[in-house]
Amino acid sequence: MHFARGWYTTEIGDMDVIAHDDRLHLFHLCLPGHDVVAHLVSDDGMNWMPVVNALRTGDPGSFDDDQIWTMHVFPWKGRFYMLYTALAKAEDGRLQRTGLAVSDDLMKWEKVAHNPVAVPDSRWYEADLNNSGRADWRDPFAWIENGVIHGLICAHEQDGPFNRRGCVAHITSKDALHWEVRPPFYTPRTNGDFEVPAIIKLDGRYYLIGHIVAPPIDVYRVASKLEGPWERPADDVLLPPGNHAFTPVVWRGRTLLYNWISAEFDWHPFAKGVARAIAPPKEAVAGTPGTLLLRSFEPGWKAVSNGAARQFLATELADSKRVYRGEWSASPSDVIGQCSPGMGLLRLPETHADFILDAKVTPQGACVVGALWRSDESGDQCTRAALAPGRQRVELQRFLQGYNYNAIGRGHKTLQENYCAFTPGKAFDLQVIAWGPYIEISVNQRVALAMLTMSRRDGHMGLFVEDGRASFENVRLTTLRTPRGFEIGKRL
After folding, report:
1. Does 450 lie in the same domain as 374?
2. Which residues, including other chains, have CB under 8 Å from residue 260's CB and lie 6 or more apart?
3. Which of 149, 259, 334, 411 makes a 20 to 30 Å CA pair with 322?
4. Number of domains the chain contains
């Protein structure tokens, strides 16, 4: 996890990650200026250290003298190549082009003399300023197969309804230096843009991921061949809004997806507005044929943990001194909660600010069930994961006393929600990760929610049940080392 520091809390933009010599290198845009490509390195995939910046906008009169947008770095025959989006002041930044820089060590970069290396071709793409006032040609990504480098670019088709022209353009190269513009790689014809396209391959299938702007979510398509056809799954969303611009990297045998994440800046008493961060990665795995699942990055969390998980005994949990409403009892293997009407809360024996909480939950008629953390004794001020099996929903919720007296709902706010398939009465695995302001919630090993929020830095943890009965077993707690800058009493 990495946060922007300085005057702006929103400087982190689209990124790219490459593995080299067992170390990860991350390149990202710096907003709002778009004048430099920053460079970070990591040895555990979780914590990042800034190093020398990689690239800057060009001198006046050059093809990239206005701004640099999204980039992609790939290796080819012993060298590294960076395709990037270039904007020039000559067209007021409205005509996008593809630039290229090369490096021998990922640290020192040099732009090639024959830039730009690709521009939109009017045979297939919107290529000038006459129609809409700008020509989209950005977010390059390179995929190498059978000796050919395939470049994917966010572009617009040459004609058709303007709000459905967004496509993935196609350029190819055999030497990484010279590129040929080809017909579109993918034409969804449902959105104005298909941004930051990228490809991963799992279990013999290709997955095309990208960001659409209406609504602003990241989605995926699947195909059995690189050339398609690309099919849209019924549930094609990677994660709910707030998570943007996923980029893949294969590292230590795992396919990881990195992205930037944005949310209301609620963890600093003097800060307002929005903050952005580089989120911990998710592991991409193939689910049932044609589906893509995101799982929590287990090795990364082990790297920042304080040791093995502690498993609570059911008899240890069912302590009446920690009950706030409801009836709680213990069997040999699980703790059972029942409350009607309202919410029954069982606080855990320990309080921790940064942790992983795991449990197997069996709804036995409960309308809502879940876990809460950083809470007061009654659960009136807390953050919680609320799962509603009957509504097939999982929600991340925040409760604050006196949050806004005049607001409907006052202190309650649903920060993020997602569809989740529950089988009535059947147990499911729940995992909650809280690491500084980063919150991640998984159901049955699939990451369902990822968000930034930390209105309270510490407090109680607990299990709760609303209007019914549920059981919890295998309740385990793993404590995490506090991320840099988020020590108690110090909020980044």
Report:
1. yes
2. 12, 13, 14, 15, 28, 244, 245, 276, 277, 278, 279
3. 411
4. 2
Higher pLDDT, 160 or 151: 151
What was the pLDDT predicted at 323? 92
Q: Are residue 323 and residue 262 in the same domain, yes or no?
A: no
When the pLDDT of each residue in the chain is averaged and rounded to a whole number, the result is: 93
Q: What is the pLDDT of residue 133?
A: 86
Instruction: State pTM to two decimals.
Output: 0.94
Contacts of 462 (CB under 8 A, 6+ apart): 322, 345, 346, 347, 348, 371, 372, 373, 375, 379
Q: Both 341 and 299 in a single domain?
A: no
pLDDT of residue 405: 61
Residue 13 lies in a domain: yes
Question: Is the residue at 215 inside a domain?
Answer: yes
Domain closes at, from 278, 303, 328: 303
Measured CA to CA, the distance from residue 15 to residue 12 in angstroms comes to 8
Residue 106 in domain:
yes
The pLDDT, as a whole number, for residue 455 is 87
- Inter-CA distances, 179 with 24, 58, 112, Å: 27, 21, 13
Same domain, 196 and 274: yes
Sign for the CA dihedral angle at 59, 64, 66, 71 comes to negative
Closest CA to 278 of 249, 252, 299, 309: 249
Strand-pair category, 292-296 with 310-311 = unpaired
Structure tokens at 307: 């040791």
User: Which residue, 85, 93, 165, 95, is CA-closest to 124?
Assistant: 165
The amino acid sitting at 472 is F
* Block residue for tokens 């309270």: 456
Quote the domain boundaries for residue 360. Answer: 310-479
With a cut of 70, say whether residue 406 has pLDDT above it.
no
How many whole angstroms separate alpha carbon 449 and alpha carbon 282? 11
Q: Cβ(370)–Cβ(376) under 8 Å?
A: no
| Residue 207 exposed, middle or buried by CB count within 10 Å (0-12, 13-18, 19+) | buried
228 contacts 239 by C-beta, under 8 angstroms: no
pLDDT digits (tens, 9 = 90+) for 313-339: 888 898 888 999 999 999 888 999 999
Q: Last residue of a domain, which of 255, 287, 303?
A: 303
Is it the case that residue 408 has pLDDT exceeding 90?
no
